[in-house]
Amino acid sequence: MAFTFIRSAAAIAAWALAGAAPTWAAVDLPALKIDKNQTTVSGLSSGGFMAVQLHVAYSSVFGKGAGIVAGGPFYCAEGSVVNATGRCMASPAGIPTSTLVNTTNTWASQGHVDPVSNLQNSKVYLFSGSVDSVVKTGVMDALKTYYSSFVPAANVVYKKDLAAEHSMVTDDYGSACSAKGAPYINDCNFDLAGAMLQHLYGPLNARSNATLPAGNFVEFKQSPFITNHGMATNGWAYIPQACQAGSSATCRLHVVLHGCKQNVSDVQQQYVRNTGYNRWAETNNIVVLYPQTSTAATNSCWDWWGYDSANYSKKSGPQMAAIKAMVDRLTSGGGTTVPDPDPVALPAPTGVSASGATASSMAIGWNSVAGAAGYNVYRNGNKTNALTVYGTSYTDSGLAASTSYSWTVRAADANGAEGAASSAVTATTLAAAGGETPTCTNASNYAHTLAGRAYALYGMTYANGSGQSMGLWNIYAKTTLKKTGPNYYVIGTCP
Question: Catalytic: 254?
């Protein structure tokens, strides 16, 4: 809840005012027993763009998967700050996705990035807040299109139906979900870190909700890996007790990259401690590495447009190489590397049915599949469940009234590998309460807000009810809104 953030922020301020802020001596990054095949990466905003760069350029290291929050396609800026702040944030229609795919393939053939074939088995989790005013959802749409050239569609989850501003989303810490500003961690009643890690790694043990041991938080020296280049002297890591030096367990590694104005100098340890990753790490033997930029970097951002190096997105980029070296150090402790098992050829679920229709939801059911650890549900070809479904039914919500949809179901094994898709089932949601017939209105976004069909936020317009983005709030941008229920509108046309 928001209270948690306020309370924690107050405590940090009290420490500072009292001159009694806790101190930690930075240590050398340890060499741990880590399965190198279980290394993944995620990031927010500039950290999201950086995570894509690491995933693509070092796919031999991060081929297990990547989680991207408010990021964009590889090499989106093409070395230009104008492109970075324009098409890669505010004007996604200008993103040349096919050109970026071609560049990736060319660089792979030249050895500037790893072979793209490494991405074939990757898992990718994408998240865009529907009211993100900094990195528009269209940028993430372009990222999904970019990944479609390298990663199977069944391996990609894209969640963009949560009305979150530009932030790392949690279910119990941060500012209000629609708030914009430091620490850029928002409480939206959704465990994004958990959803992401479960997609990347498959089914996990439940997270720890207890206070985490203070000794598991480690401040380490970044200077052995890089000096300057927008990088801080020290970084942070969360190392579960079972994964610490001298332990017998072989662990996994997840690298987390903060966004602009989110390093320890900017928001203290809030991103390191309160974004939700560590609680899952504690119960699943995952080491979490938090590299840090310095305030000398432009807005404390990671280099995803070339402010530090023209090679920023290649393996030779200074920040890229530094993080790779940190990973190499952490994973050098002799852990057993076990290749991912070949996916189990799970059959398609049978008996898929749709029932219990309402104006906004539909219950999907199916028969169990022998050997399945869980299931994924696809609506109109797009995965709709954020977390693995462990039963044989799923209620798909947030649907438009009087609208026909098609669903398929895939079984997944314990490693998250999916089997064949089921036959499709098609069904139509009910009319809105009172049997209201859908009506359409074409007008400027400004007129829609005056009429109460939409609302404006940070210069953008959103449909009432569905929250769909309509573009700029002005008299020139026009949108057709379909009313499907009381104060509920979707972008579309009437029959």
Answer: no
